[in-house]
Amino acid sequence: MNQNIRNAKKYFENLPHVTLGFFPTPFYKLENLSKDLGVNLYIKRDDFTGMNLFGGNKIRKLEYLLGDALAQGCKAVVTYGATQSNHAMETVSACRRCGLEPILYLTAVVKPDEKDVRANLLLDKVMGAEIHIVDIGPDETEDDAEARSFVMGAEHAARLTAEGTKCYDVPMGGASHVGSIGFAAGFVELAEQLDAMHVKADYVYHATGTGGTMAGLAAGRKLVGSTAKIRSISVSPKNEFYLTKVQNLANQVLDDLRSDVRVDKDADLFLDQSYYAPGYEQPNEKASEAIRLLARREGLFVDPVYTGKALAGLIDHIRRGAPSSSGTPAAPRRFLLSRKCWGIFSKANVKPPESCAFRRFFPKCARCNTKLRGGNRFVTWFANYS
Predict the structure, then answer these.
(1) Is 217 exposed, middle or buried (0-12, 13-18, 19+ CB in 10 A)?
(2) Does residue 85 have an active-site annotation?
(3) CB of 54 within 8 A of CB of 7?
(4) d(CA 358, CA 47)
(5) Measuring CA to CA, which residue among 4, 49, 22, 35 is closest to residue 342?
(6) Digit-coded pLDDT (tens) for 118-137
(7) What is the CA angle 214-219-223, rounded to 5?
(8) Averaged over 177-194, what is the pLDDT?
(9) Catalytic one of 85, 226, 338, 386
(10) What domains, with CATH codes, occur in the chain?
(11) 234 phi, psi to nearest 5 deg
């Protein structure tokens, strides 16, 4: 094992932690898609974290968050998200496993139909979470409603604590320095797998919402001294302060781990907001095409809210040439996709297809550069799945 990786693993010893998932998660090359796209494309299957069928890398942060909650003697957990939040559903599941009472404050970005509750919100109800739906008022933005939900949740937690039930407050997406430690550990795990396979990653792609995963991955990258560039694909609009927030969160993680290395937003963080439209929880054509492509070429399915949009960004970057640190196109390289997952894309000695047989996978023919049109649109029922 690389000495940098061995040293990095020591930082996580003796931190409050509960075991929820099964690690390391599988990591392997997507052979068919690699050939089609002319790159070396790998996937890390964090959908196999194993706590439930819906998995996801959220389990990584929850191991540290709930470990901290139990260490503090808490009996309940309050957290936040949108109505179809993966984070909220996974928090409920983890709380049930740890004997903690889950309380959710969910912003109705897409107002749920009370007569047709489905997907994550349905699972929240089945597991018996205490759910509070926060509607977006006529004069409110989504951010306003989220801010109001935070106040409501904090007041609820304070009330329970005053009554004798100590309550642990988990930020939206688990985007706290404690939760992001799990993603830093995840990057160290990935680095160990890459080292064992003698693969050098050039880029790591993932979906970003609240920034907790992004911060943890950036911190983990610094711990192992990786040269792989992390590419974060946004699933919702971000303001001008987002990267500063992520930078500060990443450095809090490094402080918690007692590391002297630092994350710099200009050198270490990259955010692409080109693929979330028309909005959070709302499918788009590029994501639908990416989901269908992965399903048809590798027999894998990803969700349209998060990973489908990250996959769309990765594929589009490959087709246009991978972005450099400045965001301008560069030569195709080695990529890693995180699927609830992460994905890797590495410099390939793969030639473009010898014919136009794969033209439905490219916006332009890889051989003759002719712009291509047509192709089946992704079926509505799956585009609306979440």
Answers:
(1) buried
(2) yes
(3) no
(4) 28
(5) 49
(6) 888 999 999 999 999 999 99
(7) 150
(8) 97
(9) 85
(10) 3-53+178-350 (3.40.50.1100), 75-165 (3.40.50.1100)
(11) -75, 140
